[in-house]
Amino acid sequence: MNIENYREAFLNFMTKNLSKSEPKNLYEPIDYIMSLGGKRMRPILVLMSCDLFGGDISEGLEAALSIEMFHNFTLIHDDIMDSADLRRGKVTVHKKWDLNTGILSGDALMIQSNQRLEYYDGKTFKALITLYNKTALEVCEGQQLDIDFETMPKVELDEYLKMISYKTAVLVGASLKMGAIICKASLEDQNGIYNFGLNLGLAFQLQDDYLDTFGAQDFGKKIGGDIIESKKTFLYIKALELADSKDKEHLLHLYGNTYDEDKKIAEVKSIFLKYGVAELLLAEIEKFTIKALADIDALSLNQSKQELLKDFAMSLMTRKT
Known about the structure:
By secondary structure, the protein is mostly helical. Helices cover 75% and strands 1% of the residues. It has 15 helices and two strands. It has helices spanning 3-17, 24-34, 41-52, 61-82, 93-96, 99-116, 122-151, 157-182, 187-214, 225-228, 234-242, 245-256, 261-274, 277-297, 303-317; strands at 86-87, 90-91. The protein has a two-stranded antiparallel sheet. Strand 1 (86-87) and strand 2 (90-91) form a beta hairpin. Helix 3 (41-52) crosses helix 8. The model has no long low-confidence stretch (mean pLDDT 94).
């Protein structure tokens, strides 16, 4: 189970199977967004799952490309909705071309993503497309919840966890389950590896929340970005719940008005630290990580494969970036 081998196999396959030349203004933006890099975590998980359950990773490549195409489709449309100028340090698709091109190329990428699954036959195709459609709809629901939160005066913690589950974690679970489906793992193992991915995805996103505010300066983006954008993350929700009336009013004011960025970050962080919400977030990350590790124990994998999967999970959860 070598992560770099999975990544290399996927990137080679993607390079050979990606480009369509005409119409140029439809397919060039697709090539562009797909070439911007990223961790390629989701396609790697498809191949890893194939390998864990005794299959040939080459059989998982079409599903891996499908998942990565879908993920990048969501990035194009997310950037449009967020009016974002940059993605992974490069100009976003709708800024490099135009809004209509971003919408249409995103749509085409989503359709291409769906088409990749046509490689599989019979019951395998049915199981994959059913999972794909369920996951795609949940991602849309998660995005809508995220948009709704921007104007909601108060967001409950369970609402926030549902949003990040749908927006992020379900795609991690689906990636792992796709590999298990392709390799004809038992239904119990398919569901078990999905649950592992779901809990790991939740822990991973919560870790991102923590690193965004309390990470090192080399995290890869400006520390405090969520605060600047007034995002209602775990830290904000818990601080609002625990703060006294004066600090609660101040926090609401900071999130509801325009401030100097450094001043806003410093004052919000001081409230977070005062009420210990960073430690509460770390405890929540640990809770979902423990759940993910317990899901591994329930899989019908031999002990050495279980240990490899646990090592992989812990490597993600101890990252600094």
